[in-house]
Amino acid sequence: MIINQLLKSHPVRGDDRGQLVAIESNIDVPFEIKRIFYIYGTSQGVPRGNHAHYKTKQYLISVSGSCKVTLDNGLDKETYVLDKQNKGLLQEEFVWGVMHDFSDDCVLLVLASEHYEDADYIREYDQFTKQVVK
Ligand code: T46
Question: Fewer CB in 10 Å around end: N or C, the chain?
């Protein structure tokens, strides 16, 4: 995986009132945003995710605090630190993702390309590697 292709810094449109970061479908993220969700209040030492998706692409931004995200495409594994409100990480379909090392104040915002559908999840790592490593 090439780090710069997945991790992106967005312009911060700040003035004396404070900061603003704008994210637009098909411009700042390479898909149409159909769903957003966010996780916060994560129990210490407990990872989230641990799955891949058949169709869904996700874009992850830690809008408060920090966390780490390990992405694994079946061949390479890379851990990214999300610690700025204007830094976003793309998790494409067929990429295993684990979110971990959340700070107490972390709010992880996720923009997703698809509506929620349980059938879009690949939850068994063995099944994932069978599909991506041919
Ligand atoms: C990801 C990480 C960061 C919904 O009803 N709608 C939704 O859009 C989502 C994402 C979840 N849910 C329900 C399904 C479960 O009953 O919320 C519950 C917790 O979801 P899950 O166990 O999938 O949570 P995480 O933290 O393991 O994973 C979620 C996303 O599923 C995942 O794609 O990247 O947050």
Answer: C
51 is catalytic: yes
Determine which residue's CA is closest to atom 28 belonging to ligand 1.
Answer: 49
Query: What are the beta bridge partners of residue 9?
Result: 87
pLDDT at residue number 132: 84
pTM (2 decimals)? 0.95
**Closest C-alpha residue for ligand 1 atom 16:** 118
CATH of the domain at 93: 2.60.120.10
Question: Considering its fold, how many domains does the chain have in total?
Answer: 1
82 closest CA partner among 104, 47, 57, 107: 107
Domain that holds residue 47: 7-132
